[in-house]
């Protein structure tokens, strides 16, 4: 094993991916601890990322992205003791089928999905060897984390952003606007069944669009109930495989549930929906995604009437 830290990029002619390594190129086989880090985006919080990176048990932590560079490598390598921090940039279907790319995923002790454009992840990775390798890693108990766009693809259901992003007001006025695009069954994490995830939540005023996602999940996929985990910037839901989780960071995590279809969820007509349950949690609060209940948070409900969201909180805030 090489003792010196090395940093290089594999940029051979014709290679459809980019690969960056910080640390040792010699593979090791420690036993990682299964866990999921759902991170709401924004500036990185060391304590959150340290919790995740330590699940690798000193092995190889792999960052996956469709664009960008190796900025996470030196960050993670300095944050905790690792054999290596690696980044794979997988920007095409060809790269998502490459044997080297799949092998690196198969040998990683932790996998982190960086921010960017989640449509690239859904369209390029889902039905590909990379998607298969990610699902196999989850089954092996490899810890998986995601921030921003990386968070958006962790739930059983995803806002795919196929037509770019969508703001709350636009989605509420037309739940079937072309920008409200949903996908499902990318990673199949048991603790996130019937669940969609959203990031940058309060900072980008995404409550309205998340309510539309819930309405569409009920209408389009005929679920018995639809759930969402929506996370503020610099905040995370840190989840065990059994669904037990705690909140870390500076903001809140919102657990939303809709158990009856919207009164009106049709193309070209503003959404009307009632009885949406919200459980808002902050630093240190606990939640169980299986039982869908928690401690240390605040419970309230939301109603949408012709595209306008109201709250039963004393201050009438929807957040």
In short:
The chain is built from 8 helices and 19 strands.
What does this structure look like?
By secondary structure, the protein is an alpha+beta fold. It has a single domain, classed as Rossmann fold, CATH 3.40.50. The protein has 8 helices and 19 strands. The strands form 3 sheets. It has an 11-stranded mixed beta sheet, sandwiched between helices. Strands 10-11-14-15-18-19 form a 6-stranded mixed beta sheet, covered by helices on one side. The protein has a two-stranded antiparallel sheet with strand order 8-9. α2 links the parallel β4 and β5. α3 packs parallel to α5. The N and C termini lie far apart (51 Å).
**N-to-C CA distance:** 51 Å
Structural class: alpha+beta
Strand content: 25-35%
Architecture, CATH level 2?
3-Layer(aba) Sandwich
- Number of beta strands: 19
Major beta sheet, strand line-up: 1-2-5-4-6-7-3-12-13-16-17
User: Outline, from the CA principal axes?
Assistant: globular
Number of domains: 1
CATH fourth-tier homologous superfamily: Class I glutamine amidotransferase (GATase) domain
CATH topology: Rossmann fold
Mean pLDDT: 95
The helix/strand series, from N terminus to C terminus, equals: EEEHEHEHEHHEHEHEEHEEEEEEEEE
> Biggest sheet, open or closed, and with what strands and sense?
11 strands, mixed
Low-confidence stretches: 1-13
Counting H and I runs of at least 4 residues, what is the number of helices? 8
Integer-rounded radius of gyration: 20 Å
């Amino acid at each position: 094993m090489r003792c010196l830290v090395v940093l290089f990029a594999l940029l051979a002619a014709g290679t459809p991916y980019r690969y960056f390594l910080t640390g040792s190129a010699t593979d090791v086989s420690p036993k990682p601890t299964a866990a999921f880090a759902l991170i709401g985006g924004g500036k990185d919080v060391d304590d959150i990322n340290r919790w995740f990176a330590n699940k690798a048990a000193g092995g190889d932590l792999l960052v996956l992205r469709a664009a960008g560079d190796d900025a996470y490598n030196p960050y993670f390598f300095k944050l905790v003791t690792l054999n290596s921090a690696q980044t794979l940039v997988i920007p095409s279907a060809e790269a998502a089928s490459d044997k080297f790319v799949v092998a690196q995923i198969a040998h990683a002790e932790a996998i982190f999905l960086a921010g960017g454009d989640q449509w690239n992840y859904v369209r390029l990775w889902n039905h590909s060897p990379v998607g298969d390798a990610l699902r196999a890693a989850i089954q092996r108990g490899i810890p998986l984390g995601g921030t921003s766009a990386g968070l958006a693809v962790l739930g059983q259901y995803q806002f795919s952003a196929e037509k770019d992003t969508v703001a709350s007001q636009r989605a509420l006025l037309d739940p079937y606007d072309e920008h409200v695009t949903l996908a499902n069954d990318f990673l199949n994490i048991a603790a996130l069944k019937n669940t969609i995830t959203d990031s940058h939540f309060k900072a980008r005023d995404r409550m309205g669009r998340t309510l539309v996602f819930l309405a569409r999940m009920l209408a389009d996929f005929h679920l018995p109930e639809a759930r969402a985990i929506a996370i503020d910037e610099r905040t995370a839901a840190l989840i065990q495989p059994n669904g037990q989780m705690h909140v870390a960071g500076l903001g809140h995590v919102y657990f939303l549930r809709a158990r009856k279809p919207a009164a009106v969820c049709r193309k070209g007509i503003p959404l009307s929906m009632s009885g949406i349950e919200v459980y808002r949690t902050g630093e240190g609060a606990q939640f169980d995604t299986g039982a869908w209940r928690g401690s240390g948070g605040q419970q309230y409900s939301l109603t949408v009437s012709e595209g306008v969201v109201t709250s039963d909180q004393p201050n009438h805030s929807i957040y």
